Amino acid sequence: MSRPLLIVVSGPAGSGKTTLCDRLTRAHPGAIRRVVTCTTRAPRAGERDGVDYHFLSRPDFEAQVAAGVFLEHALVHGNLYGPRAADVVAHLGAGHDALLNVDVQGAATIRAKSAADPRLAGALVTVFVRVSDRNELRRRLTGRGTDAADEIDRRVAAAEEELRHAGEYAHVIESGPREADFAALDAIYLAEKARRP
Question: How far apart are the C-alpha atoms of 123 and 120, rounded to whole Å?
């Protein structure tokens, strides 16, 4: 049995990273466990607490930050996000691959913490999903129908900064059709599993 992986996936809003993570988890149900992230943002239609995110009040989130609960945490688009370190460790300790969908700030923090923690260093795999065409990114964000126009403008502007960090990742997927993106992520996962006995 190969060593468990800590798979960190990032990309701008609209890159499809959440869908990709969900598909990868479904494709390998006995192996991969998605780490449910905590957030202070309000649930979108259909999202469930404890399944899609752990939805926390800002004071609760900040109290957990002060207690050192999070592997990393960041302010993104005006809301706080962070995975609990204990959730990651529990998945890895049980022999499961842990999958995290985090922003570039979070990925940088995890890389830094992994450099000082041999358990994480040997497990870490980083993947960036890049959408280089600004118009395509805007089309995807608009097509979701979940954000107001000013929020879409904010996310497109933030994406330009996020794209500058793609080179910090071990793997970069140039986003195209959904099936091709998933095939690329699945191939990365299988290759990383094969090289870590």
Answer: 5
How confident is the model over 50-91, as pLDDT tens digits? 999 999 999 999 999 999 999 999 888 789 999 999 999 999
Q: What interhelical angle do 17-27 and 178-194 show, nearest 10? A: 50
Cα-only R_g, the chain: 16
User: pTM above the 0.90 mark?
Assistant: no
21 inside domain: yes
The residue range of the domain holding 26 is: 6-35+86-194
Contact between 84 and 70 (Cβ < 8 Å): yes
- The answer to the question of residue 43 being in a domain is no
Q: What's phi and psi for 132, nearest 5 deg?
A: -80, -25
- In angstroms, the CA 30 to CA 168 distance is 30
Closest Cα to residue 130, out of 17, 30, 5, 2? 17
Answer yes or no: is 41 within a domain.
Answer: no
User: What is the number of structural domains in the chain?
Assistant: 1
